[in-house]
Known about the structure:
Number of strands of chain A: 34
Mean pLDDT of chain A: 96
Number of helices of chain A: 18
Low-confidence stretches of chain B: none
Pfam families (chain B): Fer2, Fer2_2
InterPro entries (chain B): 2Fe-2S-bd, 2Fe-2S-bd_dom_sf, 2Fe-2S_ferredoxin-like_sf, 2Fe-2S_ferredoxin-type, Beta-grasp_dom_sf, Diverse_Oxidoreductases
Keywords (chain B): 2Fe-2S, Iron, Iron-sulfur, Metal-binding, Oxidoreductase
Strand order of the largest sheet of chain A: 3-7-1-14-11-12-13
Strand order of the largest sheet of chain B: 2-1-5-3-4
Oligomer: heterodimer
Distance between the termini of chain B: 32 Å
Bound molecules: FE2/S2 (inorganic) cluster
Largest sheet of chain B: 5 strands, mixed
Number of domains of chain B: 2
GO molecular function, one term (chain B): metal ion binding
Structural class of chain B: alpha+beta
CATH superfamily of the largest domain in chain B: Beta-grasp domain
Radius of gyration of chain A: 27 Å
CATH architecture of the largest domain in chain A: 2-Layer Sandwich
CATH class of the largest domain in chain B: Alpha Beta
Number of strands of chain B: 5
Largest sheet of chain A: 7 strands, mixed
CATH topology of the largest domain in chain B: Ubiquitin-like (UB roll)
Strand content of chain B: 5-15%
Organism (chain B): Sinosporangium siamense
Radius of gyration of chain B: 15 Å
Strand content of chain A: 15-25%
CATH class of the largest domain in chain A: Alpha Beta
Helix content of chain A: 25-40%
Low-confidence stretches of chain A: none
Amino acid sequence: MTTSTPMGFGRMHRKEDARFIRGRGQYVDDVQLPGMLHGAILRSPHAHARILSVDTSAAEALPGVKAVITGETLAGLGLAWMPTLSKDVQAVLATDKVRFQGQEVAFVVAEDRYIARDALELIEVDYEPLPSVIDARTALAEAAPVIRDDLDGKKDNHIFDWEAGDRAHTEAIFERAEVRVSQDMLYPRVHPAPLETCGALADFDKVTGKLTVWCPTQAPHAHRTLYAMVAGLPEHKIRVISPDIGGGFGGKVGIYPGYVCAIVGSIVTGKPVKWMEDRSENLMSTAFARDYHMTGEIAATQDGRVQAIRVKVLADHGAFNGTAQPTKFPAGFFHVFSGSYDIETAHCEVTGVYSNKAPGGVAYACSFRITEAVYLVERLMDVLAYELGMDPAELRMKNLLRADQFPYTSPTGWEYDSGDYPRTLALAMEMAGYDKLRAEQAERRANGDRRLMGIGLSFFTEAVGAGPRKHMDILGLGMADGAELRVHPTGKAVLRVSCQSQGQGHETTFAQIVAEELGISPDDVDVVHGDTDQTPFGLGTYGSRSTPVSGAAAAMVTRKVRDRAKLVASAMLEVAPDDLEWTKGRWSVKGDPKHGATIQEIALASHGAVELPEGVEGHLDATCVYNPPNLTYPFGAYICVVDVDPDTGQVDVRRFIAVDDCGVRINPMIVEGQIHGGLADGIGMALMQLMAFDEDGNHLGASFMDYLLPTAVECPSWELGETVTPSPHHPIGAKGVGESATVGSPAAVVNAVLDALKPYGIRHADMPLTPSNVWRAIQGRPIRTDLAIT
Amino acid sequence: MQITVTVNDQPYTREVEPRLLLVHFLRDELGLTGTHWGCDTSNCGACVVQIDAVPVKSCTMLAVMADGHHVTTVEGLEKNGELDPVQKGFTECHGLQCGFCTPGMMLTARWLLDNNPDPDESEIREAISGQLCRCTGYENIVRSVRWAAEHTCTPEVSA
Ligand code: FES
Ligand code: FES
């Protein structure tokens, strides 16, 4: 690792580390305000039940309790329901019914967190349990109980039908295809489980009318606007501060009922109110991800040329449709499911349904459901290879898009910006020693080795950096991001951006972008983010959009400053602007490089007494809003090697090779770190992470004892490689990487395990491939991973 | 109940409720918010501190159980303005992203190096296997601890 600071892109230590390694980060629960009270939420023990009565008198009588807020209290304020990011509504505190286990029913405000919890025990709620919908496949049955009877005239659990691609063309190809393979698969419900849970500290100042909310949100500006819309508070009187965040991964995008309760609690008591959820609350009620029941089909020639792909999806959205995604796309970007292959035609149909589970859907580094899309196509490729008796690497190589096909328009209308896929796969195979691995596997099989070796591949294409205004908005808010740069008289700079880091290291990488464009040291650039009073508007950090959108804004705003600096330099040097040329950090006279001025000298002059040309305002400040012309399309090739013990079903990940192409890398150290984290996610999802329910809707993964996450001993030492294909339309050629590995890796792990199980004639088994599920599969017994079955 | 706990070499005497968790005592009573909290079931290790030089999950202990003991938190790793090699290693090798698991990871790493100054990769993985990190995929945490092992001039083996 290098320790010197580059004047722009390159490896450098993170600026934010200095506080974190000393324990001086400031996460929301670290913020203490004088007179602060603590909130706690009473939650439903039932998946579906009518609320007959709520008696809070004993709780209110407990010494130290300052307020007890119920759905009825909120209804009086018009706040019992709030809009979701998918234009549905969600109960803040239940009034009529509870619709999932863990749903918010009442909120206690007390002097300390222990008393608040004590008071929860004293609230009496009379419930009338109702039949529930837990298996999404029964949601549309005639006899299914109607979950959302709060919606006018709602008589079923249907949310939407959506399709993309060319149905007729796809059907025609399927009809005459030599080979057709179909596979049911479930991408089970998982939860991002950042190490820091969600919470909020609300402080309403009655005198000034100003509301300040500290909250670990990935989208502080969107939160501010939504609070203004929901609570009817004037937007300029709301300040959202997103302090250091202990991981987000998409789980900290939306507004949760607890946040609204903390705000109401502060308004009611006149004191700051902090609410922090515990881990069970986090796993039971905050946004889940996936829950896609998919039937995929692939059509090909006998020699392995893929011609068409189609899929039907049943999407379980939980009790309220709260997925955070661009309005036009109720299934997110799932329709990028033709993946990295040259496929003539494709068609998908997605049906969304309500169930008695927590709301959410896109909350786990999925780039708006591209995880599901990549998993689908990459599993189908392996299923096809299985049926054709072909090597999965050979099948992929044969069908990958070629470099000369870019820019490429996919059968469902995506415009892939750039790529050289075969080169990336070839590099991964070379790093893995693919042929040697296959030889080892053949030898072990021939020798009857008990331990089963498996090799799995996946190739993914992501579509990130949402997104162009004309196609993408969330609740009417366009998905652009702002940046503001001030260069002080001494040449030191402050960049203010609308996105917010949850560990991605923006304070470092964004300083590097300014440094690269302005030719100053990143040490001379401070990055301000996460405070709506201090930063320009923008939609925040999720779906790998910080670098593609905010990063572009940072580059463009710096170029504006550089252009202004050129005019100032021309006045200083008494030459026409056109006679100046830029070398990093300096404008100088063309053909006379000694005659010039550094950006620091120009900064001082711009604030000083030099006579400026007509129309040049002086100072080196600029603002910019970046509206991306297209998404960016990072991609990569992953290879996983596993050993499976057939007697116990235990899977050991022996090696994992990941070659990522995310375009230009601003700080390769940070890029690699993000990939490492995503690869661990892939192992977690493929092998252990699962939110299952019993038939009564009891959550079976509501703690870290049951919802298993990978530790250091389950993860191998990651082997990374890179190719660099810059994005042609992004100002610095970067594509974004935060979610790539989470999107691409689960399929590689699953493909590896199923490759190991091939001698047993097993073509597919659903995630998570826990020891018991692998063992069941080997025994030929059915596995249902989403429901508790014995 | 009145307790006296020595935290980072400084004694603190406080009146506490018997049920107060040590993690809350450190955070809320003493304002040492570098120790984090991340789960209800002693699985995550965000709360790890050292009690008498041994890593302990401070959410599994009551404050009163720490009476008379020595606690080291992340705030106590830096000595006389000099960072612990473990802290330097985490910066050098990008051993942290969001930083939430980092204090606990570093305190376990310090204990490991005190007892095994030259651990190999699997010993490091084993040592931190009771703690979760959701960001780094552990690779760079392992490298950070190795870095610290390689950059400790006079390894102090605790008695
Ligand atoms: S807070 Fe999770 S182990 Fe202590
Ligand atoms: S750095 Fe985020 S949990 Fe470890």
